[in-house]
Fold:
Amino acid sequence: MAAVAQFSGLRCPPLSSSRLSKPAFCSSKPSPARTSFSVAAAAYAITPAQKERQKLKDLFEEAADRCRTAPMEGVSFTVEDFHAALDKYDFDSEIGTKVKGTVFMTDVNGALVDITAKSSAYLPVQEACIHRIKHVAEAGIYPGLVEEFVIVGENMADDSLILSLRSIQYDLAWERCRQLQAEDVIVKGKVVGGNKGGVVAIVEGLRGFIPFSQISTKSTAEELIDKELPLKFVEVDEDQSRLVLSNRKAMADNQAQLGIGSVVLGTVQSLKPYGAFIDIGGINGLLHVSQISHDRVSDISTVLQPGDSLKVMILSHDRERGRVSLSTKKLEPTPGDMIRNPKLVFEKADDMAQMFRQRIAQAEAMARADMLRFQPEV
Structure:
């Protein structure tokens, strides 16, 4: 080995084990190339945030793969259960169907109602009440109100349903009128219109007709507008939309408690050749010419004039026809006093009426006694 070194002219130090284990180029001070490599490795190190994003990405990819291969895995209900849940909230949206809903918003034109339908529902102000109103609030409609409505149409523009409360109230009003007619009670009605045959009044929210023949006074339609009249039902026909009323019958019932022989204060309304019509508290009674005085009266106008106040006695009361027959003849202390001294007749009216009722009671008692006397023995 030394000869080779000498031959080549090279002087090489002998190899040692320490040199073999530790290369000559290694040094305790890092080289510039090694420093650059360490910086690059540090720049490409994965941060915790990047690890978290990668983890989420893997989860999303796994979920997407599971939806493609096993979409119902881990689901607690089936497709049939889903359709059944939809059917639970489905309902018949045909016109005339009643639905329950909750008002959640109101405006000047009506109210929006939640009826758990696939489309919205609207209650127009004209369908909110049987009476004419300008705002739904006048009918007590406000957000949060839960009520039963009826479907009356569909708005094709936005596929929304049109609801009504008025239709339901109409049905209830007709039912109420039938009940009141069966009970034969007196109701109040406000006159809102008229024609040649009579006047129109509002009763229970319905428009009813009152013929002039069923009005107790001789007033015109114009004079009765906006007045409230006591009324009774004559005809209630929902199918034909006919509601006929009578003021005369109602007024006759108001006077029923007076009974035959009672004395009432009246006012002369009009004169006819056969007698005088007397207003006795809202009902017209007829004072026939033959019941004015025991003496013959050839000209009624010589005894009475329209507007005169007088006391009269009730002779009869026809409730069905709403007619009352009156008399001043029975109140005369002596025959002809009504012609000669009507003031005396009115002063003694209550006394004469009491005597009349006593005579009637005696006559009835005698009639009953006769009937008992002639009854055959058993």
The first strand starts at residue 98 and ends at 107. Confidence is low (pLDDT under 50) at residues 1-13, 15-28.
